[in-house]
Amino acid sequence: SDSHFPVPISPHHVDYSFHFPQFFPSPNSDSSSDSDSRKIEFADIGCGFGGLLISLATLFPNTLMIGMELRDKVTEYVKERILALRISNPNQYQNVSVVRTNSMKYIPNYFSKLQLSKMFFLFPDPHFKEKNHRRRVISPFLLDEYAYVIKEGGIIYTITDVEELGEWMKSCLENHPLFEGLTDEELDADPVVKLLKCATEEGQKVERNGGQTFTAVFRRIAMK
Ligand code: SAM
């Protein structure tokens, strides 16, 4: 249950030196560098085994990014994976980290208003039954929260192999006043869109099985 993992009381309490030690030397160290004012910009919600983050880390080496994952063992695996990559590739993968948390409850504890430029929801759990739709990670209520933490021009990426969930995520986004769909040209021009299908472990499984996927990519727009 939630009582087993600590939650920062506000985004100011997120321990950046724990997650990104090379960018944020610990306060007690001798390093004289000015404390970095950089913030986490990408969040992979329900990151699973972390494949997307690992791809993004080298594509955007100066952007801080974090995965949020509910399962303890899976989170530990991603931690180990990142540590191993940091050791075998000096100065790389320093910008990526993971945290065990329930993203449906604690997004506002991690990110402040207009902080994020990208949020990812790749192959989220479908929760088929109508009475369980409230457990879906994209919902009208949660989109309000995501709109709060994503900056104007920031992008939400979603993909699923479950058609009904794909329709649901798309319609929630279409009906939200603070999001608009990207045009086909914009989708083609965005290198991140190409990763959605193939970078994560779930995506690779769907690809191996020749499954169809349903993508919805929306931009956070200004309040009218
Ligand atoms: N995005 C990954 C991928 O594409 O391979 C994982 C997809 S997996 C089907 C869904 C993941 O979301 C699981 O690892 C699950 O533990 C995680 N998850 C479900 N609900 C969550 C929540 N409320 N907060 C954080 N993670 C959650």
Strand order of the largest sheet: 3-2-1-4-5-7-6
Secondary structure: helix percent: 25-40%
What's the rounded overall pLDDT mean? 94
Instruction: Give the strand tally.
Output: 7
Describe it for me?
By secondary structure, this protein is of the alpha/beta class. It is 37% helix and 20% strand. The protein has nine helices and seven strands, in the order H-E-H-E-H-E-H-E-H-E-H-E-H-H-H-E. The chain has a seven-stranded mixed sheet, with helices on both faces. The longest helix has 17 residues, at 72-88. The N and C termini lie far apart (40 Å). The structure holds S-adenosylmethionine. Residues 46-48, 68-71, 74, 102-104, 122-125, 200-203 line the site of S-adenosylmethionine.
